[in-house]
Structure formats: C-alpha cells, structure tokens
Amino acid sequence: MFHVFDQVIPLSKLPEWIAFDQSHEYYPIEGNWTRVYQQGTNTIETAHGELKQTFYALPALVDIDDIDDFLDTDPYGKIRELEFYGGGEVGTPSGGYEWDDGTTRTFNGVDMDRFLTSFRYNRPQLEPGIIDYHDLVEDSPGNYVTYHTDDLVVRFSDEKWEELTFGDPTVLENDIVHIDIQTGYLLDYLDVRDAALVIGYFETREIQYESQTINIEEKDHEPVDVFDGPAFRYASPTTGLSTIPSGELHWLCPIYPTTSDASAQRQLEENKEAKFVTLDGNEFSVKDVEGGVPGSARYTDWAFFDMDVLEKYIKSEDGTVEWSTAQMGNVEWQDLMIQRIFRNEEYEVVILLEDLKKIPASEVPHWKAHNRTPQGGVPDHAITTYIEGKFVDEDADSSYSSRVMDAIDALAEQFQSVHGSPMLGGLREDDPVDQVIMPARNEKDQLLDAMEALNEVFFERIGGNHIDNIQDYLPEERAEEVDGSKSALYEMSVYLFNESRAGDLLDPLNAVYDLRIDRAHRGNSKWQRAMDSVDMSRPVRDYRGTYIQIMTQVAESLEEIEEELD
C-alpha cells in the first residue's frame, strides 16, 4: 500500500526518505486489496526530530480509450483536481457552499467520472455503481459486504473517522482515513465499465525540530520511477523561509482492468530478489543465480532448509515429494518445478546453490521462509551426485518408503508364484502410496498420517478373496485361526517359521496397525503398545526417527517372510 511509516527511520536514511528514493516500491495493491483513497497526516517522534507525512490519494474514473491523453501531463500541483466534492467548498465560490452535482469533469482536457465523493462533514462515499454492480450492502459505516456471501469487499477506517469526527483529533499521531477494495471486485467493475481508475497521489514529508544537521540534496521537479504513470518529486533542505527539510511526491497512478496481471508479474520479480543464506555464509537470490554465481560457489555452495518446507508439496494435489534414496529425492510442483533435494542427518533439506534458479518465482517466499543456517552437513549422496559426478545406486540405499513398498510387491509376487493366487489386491489410483513418506514436520500427527497410509496400501489390500487364498495355502489347523488380514499374515508366518519368530516379525506390522487405530481414536493405549512393539523408548520426541525405525523393521520383516516363501 502507499507507505505510512510507523517505525523510526535511521538518521543516515533520512535524506533518502525525504527525497522519496524508494518511490519505485510504492504500490496501491497489497495482497487481495487495493487502496483507492487515503487522506490525512502521520507523525513519528524521534530523537532527531519529528517526521511528518501528509497524504492525498484521490480516485477518478477515466475511459480506457482516453487514458493515454489523461496521463500525458505533469501532475505537479494538480492532484487535488481529481477530488469530487459534495456539500463542501468547491474552490472559493462567491455564493458560499456548492453541491457538486456529479456531472463529468475534465482533467488535462479529458473527461473523468466520479468514483468517490469527499464531504466536509461526513465520511467519503463510493459512487453507487460499484456498490450496485456487486450487490453490496453496508455492514458498518463505509464497510460493505456481499449480499449473498457476507464477504468483505470494501473496508473503511471507520473507527479512525469517528475519532476524528466525534473525538479530539489533536491527540492522534496518525489521523489517516483510507478505503480499500478487494482487488478482484474492483478490476471486474473497471472491466465492465471499460475504464481505468486513476489515483491522484500527493504526499509531503517534513523533518521538524531536527536536533542534528541533515544533508538534503536539492531536487526540483525531478521525474521518478513508480509502478505506472507520471510522477515527479521535490526535495529541499528548507521550506520557504524555514529550515524544515521537506519533500513532495506528485503522481498519477493508473489501475487498469488488467492491473492484477501486472501486479502479479511485479511481485514475482520482487520474489526473485529475496536472499538465501548458504552453507558458506553467502547470501544469494534466485536472480543472482540466474545471472551467474561467481567462481566455484555455484557448484560447491549449498542452501539449507528446515524439512517443514516439504509439507506443502506432500499435502497438495498439485505437488509431489518422492525420495529415491534415504538421502535424495525430488520435489515437483504443478508443471513449474522439478527440484532435486537431499536430506541430511539433521533432517534438513539441502539443495545445490545453482539449483535455486529452479524454484519458480511464485514459490520463492515459501522456500525463503524455511531457509536456515545449517546444523548438519552436506549429504553423501549430494556429494556423489554433484561433486564426484557419479550416479547414486538407488537400489543399494533406497528410501524408507520405497523399500517397504518394494518388499510388499516382492512378497505378493512370491506368494502368487508359490500358490498361484494373489494375497493382495491391486493398487488403486487413489491409494495413498505417496503419503507413506517421512513426516515433513517432527509431529506425531504426521507420523500417524504416514502409518495410516501404509495400513491402507498393505493391510486393507488383504481382504475377502485374498484372505481365502492365504487360508488355502495354510494347513487346516492354521487356516482355522485366521479371522482377518493381520491374523492371516501372522498364521502364514507361524507356518513358515514358528510362533516365537512370527511374533517378532509381526511386531512392527502390528505397530502400523495400532497407530492406524490411534489415528482414528485418540487417547487409547495403542500408541504405547505400538512404541513397545518397535522398541522405541518413551516419551517419543523424534517422530521422524520413529518413522525410520518402524519402516526399517517393517521392510526387514516382509523381506524375511518373502525369502522364506521361496
């Protein structure tokens, strides 16, 4: 939004602040909201003086066909011409007060229409067109919601306005009143009107009572870079005959029906400038890497992230996380990203610095939020892949989930070969194989999610005819003991080994089954029994380590059963 400063500005930055050196960052759209009106003053008391801002941001509608002519002007000193009044003075008419009847007015020889009316003794009000077009109703003074869904579409600083109107405005450090509109609703309205909304923006900045000399470079009517439209600034170490340093910004800011596309592109470009901390203590952005990282850093430096960064891609239908080994995997997101990742002993996700550029601009803030100073090292498989330039033997060190799924498949194939009938149903398209994955977060719920998924892709595939097939394979005395999928697997293990060994082999599988029950029915004793089954000491703090232990023991049990079937 248009910048209202509420933090103390360092003394060294004040000359830049006065001169609007950051004007290119000014933007009326923030998130889902567009600021269409802003008026008032803001002051900050600091050790080196009182900083004061005064704002006028005034909107008007202009036909798209006329917008180029409208903007083809120097806005210096003309911003107040965009203000539509009601019930107040228009200039200095000899007859006193005059009601603005809403007829089209001109600016720079171009017609413009009312979008908002300013009142002397009442709050500013939007023109009825946008209210009617979206079937909005007033929920509180100046705040409008949709009639059918109650979504807030127009938000007005009504509490601030009431303070100014009915309270004592002299005690306010910030008396700015503003109106924001949900961007999508605003752009839809502009589209149907075939119009642009031009916001005339004027801001002054002053440093009063400064206790130290501040060197302000004179800038007289100088053009500046802004988001869009013409803009000029002024800066001076004096104001009139006083010694108050001051600056001004005059800007005509157009918002088009397609502005969201431009704003999205601007945001994407800004995302690519976010800096990531690396293993070597450097800071690089995606933009830096795209431009070429100097020296050997592109091949020897690494960025580290907490493993939580993967949660989004595991849970979303648009994403996939797949570990091909215990240390190496890939993240896919929509059709925008395929990123090679590694995992170290501290459960940190590690990527090569050069691979930062594979992160799409829209995803950079997500990865930036999880970037961290490394606690662990660079995984061996990362060194093998990128430093030594060799392939990692994925079969020799498969991921925990891959090893279990391979063991399930091998057991099913071996049973089919020995008995001639299947012991497992086929995998369905919606079976959650991709959820049998190490928890992204070190949380019990995520461990339970993975165990529930494993139960579904294993035990729930042993049912009906498949249990009958296992019973047919067993001698009669063992077959009679079968009363479900878990007991079918147990009786087969007893037949292949003995009761003692079968109990040991089924312990980790029982843990999976118990954790599935614990997931569905919180607060029972199944959690404790499951942890005892896999020899986990309690209380459990490392849920990822628990996942590794369970998955390793499950794979070993299934592999031993499959080998004995041979």
Describe the structure.
Strand 2 (about 35-45) and strand 3 form a beta hairpin. The chain is about 35% helix and about 25% strand. The chain starts with 13 loop residues before the first helix and ends with a helix. With about 575 residues, the chain is an alpha+beta fold. Helix 12 runs parallel beside helix 19, helix 13 (about 445-455) crosses helix 17 and helix 14 runs parallel beside helix 16. The model is unreliable at about 90-100 (pLDDT under 50). It is elongated. Strands 1, 2, 3, 5, 6, 9, 10, 11, 12, 13, 14, 15 and 16 form a 13-stranded antiparallel β-sheet that branches.
Strand-helix topology:
Elements: H1 14-18, E1 29-30, E2 33-46, E3 49-63, H2 67-71, E4 84-86, E5 105-107, E6 110-114, E7 116-119, E8 125-126, H3 128-133, E9 136-140, E10 143-146, E11 152-156, H4 158-166, E12 177-182, H5 183-193, E13 195-208, E14 219-223, E15 231-236, E16 246-255, H6 259-271, E17 275-277, E18 283-285, H7 286-291, H8 297-300, E19 302-306, H9 311-315, E20 319-323, E21 328-333, E22 337-343, E23 348-352, H10 364-370, H11 380-387, H12 400-419, H13 444-457, H14 465-473, H15 476-479, H16 485-496, H17 499-520, H18 526-533, H19 543-565
Parallel strand pairs: 4-7
Antiparallel strand pairs: 1-2, 2-3, 2-12, 3-6, 3-13, 5-6, 7-8, 9-10, 10-11, 11-12, 13-16, 14-15, 15-16, 17-18, 19-23, 20-21, 21-22, 22-23
